[in-house]
Specification:
This protein is mostly helical. The protein has one domain (23-128). Helices cover 59% and strands 8% of the residues. It is built from 7 helices and 2 strands, in the order H-H-H-H-H-H-H-E-E. Strand 1 and strand 2 (124-128) form a beta hairpin. The protein is globular.
Length: 131
């Protein structure tokens, strides 16, 4: 990441719009869930590639979002919900029963997202609720 940023700074004077990326709202929550002094090397890896997120990091971020929602009456936009649901789908596809049961225990949070975690016989999957 250091080399990537170094190259961007050297070539930056030639580029009009510097690397515009679509905002992943889950990453924004991820940054807020981990304070400055508790970030480790794997934090940086997740910032570069969301697919490298561990179940522990995702669980910490999801509980942070749930806590903020319940204590501060935070509202989630549809784009934020979509990004959160995508991460949940990736993690449930891994099939870790402990994580799946923990996600099911956040009933109020899954209701807000409009999803159910169901067992389809082969494994678990995320199903959107019809509202």
């Amino acid at each position: 990441m250091y080399l990537k940023n170094s190259l961007k700074s050297q070539l930056g004077k030639y580029v009009k719009e510097k690397d515009p990326k679509p905002i992943n709202h889950f990453i924004e929550f991820f940054k807020a869930a981990y304070p400055e002094n508790s970030r480790r090397k794997d934090f940086t890896w997740v910032l570069m590639d969301i697919n490298s997120i561990s179940e522990e990091q995702a669980w910490t971020t999801l509980t942070y979002i749930n806590r903020e929602f319940l204590s501060n009456s935070m509202e989630l936009s549809s784009a934020e919900k979509k990004d959160i649901i995508e991460v949940i789908k990736k993690l449930i596809a891994k099939g870790n029963v402990k994580f799946i049961n923990n996600m099911k225990s956040l009933k109020q949070f899954t209701d807000i997202l409009g999803i159910n975690i169901i067992n389809d016989g082969k494994g678990f999957k995320v199903k959107h609720k019809i509202i």
